[in-house]
Each structure stands twice: as C-alpha cells, then as structure tokens.
Amino acid sequence: HGWGGSHESCGSRCDEAADHGIITVSLSGYGPSGWQSWNHGGSSSSPGPEGATCTAEATSYCDEYSDSGCDCSAADNCWWTTCRDSVEQTLAVLDEVEQDLCVDLDQIWAVGCSNGGMSTFELAVDERSASRLAGIVPIVGLPHYGYLRGPAVEGIRMMGMWGETDTIVPPKSNTDNPDKTLDTSSPGWFYTSSDKVMSDWISGNSCSGNGQEPLSSSDEEQ
C-alpha cells in the first residue's frame, strides 16, 4: 500500500486474484493509524550516498514515527517513514504463508504501490529476501536517488509501472541529472529515474535491450 494506507488498500483486486489461481496476502506497514508505511533505502536514513534524499524545503515527518523505531535526533528533514525493519516484517508473514498454505515457491512476487512499490525494491536487494522472490512489481514507486541497487540475486524479474505525468514520483528526469527526478508536488524528495532503474536492472540480470520493448500481439494474447 501507499504511504498512510493499509492492507485494505488492495480492495477487490486481491479477491479477484483468487479466481485466477493466485494467492494474495496484503499487509499493513508499521506506524500509527493513518501513517502506516514501509521503510526502504533513504526513507529513514537520509543523508545517503548521494546526499540528502530531499530538498531543504521538504517537510519532516520523523516525529510521526517516534514510536515506530525512529530516533529523530539523528534525522534530517527527509525522514518520512517508519524506522522499523519492513523486510523482516514481510518475511515473517511469508514464513507463515508457506507454513500454512500450499504455494509455488518459485512464483512468489512482491507487489506494491507508491511507498509500497518502493519497498519492493528493498525486498529485491536485501539478501534475506531476494532469494525467495521470483520478481517484483513496483507501481508508481521508485528508489530514492542514491539508493538504487540491482537485484541481489540474478534472475529476479521486475515489471515496473509508472505514470509519465506523475509529479509525486516522477519517472522521467526533471533535473539536470538524467538519473535523478524531483517530487514537485510535496515538495520535494529525490528519486531515481525509471530509465536508470531499468538500465541497472538489465545489467544486474545480464540481459540485453533497454527493458522497455513494446508488447507484441502474441504477448497481449497471453
């Protein structure tokens, strides 16, 4: 789910998945009611390898998470999520699912929207979780600038969905750096451009192309 959402954000989509033989498990991130979130690279650890993950004008939300693992005395104004371990949380639930249900262990995917989409990248690069994933589907979610890493395990697939006119998590560069985008709606957090994400992901999986080839008619029929 997105920032401030909950497991209920999945809505009827999760129910409909069962009709196609897909088991879905929807989680709520850590944080007080209305502020549930997912901790991922740079969301509660700015400044990072490339400096602060936001502009000086961005609003700090760390105080909202003072009871969710955050030591705000160490924070800059860019901290905006829980500081608890969201990878550990996800794996604990996955362990229960694998224990209680009959699932194909070769077809476990992480799907998330916005803040949840950003966290799927974290699952793909964390050595605790990467080997258990077939792939990730980040929807309007990108890594903070400076925190992009390719998959920790070669072969993890990724299908990203981003909006060209999205001003909160812009997929295309709107800065003087082609790899860097700026949230102009809030303002202003820095993210990694979708082109850079695809380039690094392709390289990390030893693939060719740019990862943005159009679907063929046979693909659409499938």
Any overview of this molecule?
By secondary structure, this protein is of the alpha/beta class. The chain has helices at 12-17, 86-100, 115-125, 194-204, 217-221, and strands spanning 109-113, 135-139, 157-158, 180-182, 190-192. The strands form 2 sheets. It has a 3-stranded parallel sheet with strand order 1-2-3, with helices on one face. Strand 4 (180-182) and strand 5 form a beta hairpin. The longest helix has 15 residues, at 86-100. It is globular and about 50 Å long.
User: Biggest sheet, strands in spatial order?
Assistant: 1-2-3
Quick one: how many beta strands? 5
Structural class: alpha/beta
Distance between the termini: 27 Å
N-to-C SSE series?
HHEHEEEEHH
Q: Please mark out the parts with pLDDT under 50 across 5 or more consecutive residues, or reply none.
A: none
Biggest sheet layout: 3 strands, parallel
Radius of gyration, taken over Cα atoms and rounded to an integer in Å: 17 Å
Mean pLDDT: 91
What is the beta-strand fraction? 5-15%
Q: How many DSSP H or I helices?
A: 5
Percent of residues in helical segments? 10-25%
What coarse outline follows from CA principal-axis ratios?
globular
